[in-house]
Every structure is written in C-alpha cells, then in structure tokens.
Amino acid sequence: MFSSVHNRFGFSRFATLAALGCALLISADAFGQPGAGRRGGGPRGARPTGPRAPQSNTPPASAELEGTLPGFILGFTPAKEGSEELIGYLKVKPIEKNGRTLKLAVHRVEDLQLALGSRELNLDEAQEYFKKGLYCSVEWGVNRDGKDKSTKRELRSLKFDAIEVEGSIESIADDLIILKAKPKAGDWPGVDNTNTTNPRPPANRKLKLRTIPDVTSFTNPNDEALDVADFEAEQSVDATIIFNRSSEGMIVNLRRPGPRTAPQAAQTRTAPPPTQQGGRGKARSGG
User: Which domain holds residue 65?
Assistant: First the structure.
C-alpha cells in the first residue's frame, strides 16, 4: 500500500512539472512574436514612418570668413607686447540660431570703423567700451595679417547699437542712472518670440546705465537741453541706451516723455503786450 501511494505521488509531481514546462514554452513563443508584450504593436524598435522635418545643412553666418551680425561682447584680450598693428582679440557671441563665437583680430588700421550710437570713436576710446555683455553689431573679413595664424578673421567695423526704452527712474546721479524699463518697440536684443504661438510682451528690466562723457544728453520732448538735476526718482521717462545683458549698460539720452509743444518764444509773442497801467489789458489810473 505504501508503495502504491508513493507511486501515485511521484507520478502526480511529474505531471505537474511537465504541465508547467509546457506553459513556459508557449509563453516564450508568444512573447517572441512581433508586437507581443508591447502596447501599440508594431516591430520592436520601429521608427515613425510619417514625414520628417527637413534638416538644413547650411552653416550659420558666423561660420563664414566674411559677414555682419549683431551680438554681445564676450571679452577682449590685448595683444602681447611687441605687436605694432595688432591691438588684441575681440570675442563676440552673435545673435543667431546655433551661432558660433567670433574671435576677431583688432588691428590699428585706417579703415577700421568704430561708433557709439551716432558718435565715431577712435580705437583707444573704443577699447574702453569692449565690456562683456554690451550689445553691438560687428562686420568682419579675412585677416590681412599673414603673420597672425591664431585667427582667420579680423574686425572691420563695430557699432554699439542704441535701443529706445520707456519706464521710470529708480535712482539718478551724475554718473549712474538706474531705470526700470522695457523696449518701446520689439523685444530685448537676443530674445526671440517669433516662433511662439502667443508671444509675450517684453518684460520690464532693472537697467544700470553709466553716463558717457560728451555723449549723454538730457532733454525735454522738444529736444531742448535739460540737466540731470531736472530729473528725479519715480519720474516717467523715455531713454536711448546701449543695452548690456549681464552688467552695466550706457545711456545716450534721457528725456521727459510727451508730445512736442510750440516753442516758448512763439507763445510769448502771441500774448497781449502790457499797457501803461502796468497790467495786461487794464488801464493805469491817471494822476
């Protein structure tokens, strides 16, 4: 009897193991079929078959040996002593998609054009403004100095481009003016909202602006000269500035906003002349 029970138990155990093995084989075969065990089906690792956006192989303009682009100054490295014409190297980050940093040799040559707004600068003056973050436009060309092997391009012209802003004064002093302002048209340099569905208006920024000797002016809406003392904190103003995205910028003009009015002299001429009584329009009593 013990032998019979043992035989039956052994057979049952064998049958269970056999059934389990068959189930595993069936599952493995099903899992190996294309699309099995994954949502959505389709061959494993398959890529979408829809149309793909065209990819441009055109290099950015900043990769060319000659060109003109707006950008931000990254820094200036003076040349080693002993160089007569080579002044140093200017690095500029262009405002363009996938733009490459420009390293431009700066030579003391007659045809190098430098300007701050509408004022022309000589090379010594311009070097004082080669500060990181300042917005400018540069033109470059093939380096004409055959001995200079460190860069293939040289600076041909640089202009610190001014932008118009509107806002209010936070603080004002003879050499430093702090504004809270935004561009009067468009957005800040380097900000591109053209590809967004709902472009946002330009944000107000806190601008620390240095005055420029012999350049910065203060005016009223008629462009008549004022003094820095004619402005005060919390006053609404318009301004022409050289923008700096990382540090202090520069102010070209600070002015009171509003429509232009007739010159004061013209208004005086239209007023009635005083009479002999010492008043306007009233007779002086006789005596």
Answer: 61-160
pLDDT in tens, 256-278: 998 877 665 544 444 444 444 44
- Pick from 220, 189, 225: which is nearest to 96 by CA? 189
Whether 192 shows a pLDDT value over 90: the answer reads no
Same domain, 126 and 136: yes
**Which pLDDT tens digit goes with each residue over 113-130?**
999 988 899 999 999 999
Q: What letter does residue 276 receive in the DSSP assignment?
A: T
pLDDT for residue 14 is more than 70: no
**Burial per residue of 87-106, b for 16 or more beta-carbon CB atoms within 10 angstroms, e otherwise:** bbbbbbbbbeeebeebbbbb
Q: How many CB atoms lie within 10 A of CB 3?
A: 7
The single-letter code of the amino acid at 102 is: L
pLDDT of residue 163: 95
CA distances for 241 relative to 64, 163, 199, angstroms: 30, 6, 24
Domain end call among 160, 182, 216 = 160
Cβ pair 247, 131 in contact under 8 A: yes
**Continuous H helices in the chain:** 2-31, 123-127, 264-270
Q: Final residue of a domain: which of 110, 143, 160?
A: 160
For strand 67-78 and strand 135-142, is the pairing parallel, antiparallel, or unpaired? antiparallel
Q: What is the pTM of this model?
A: 0.68
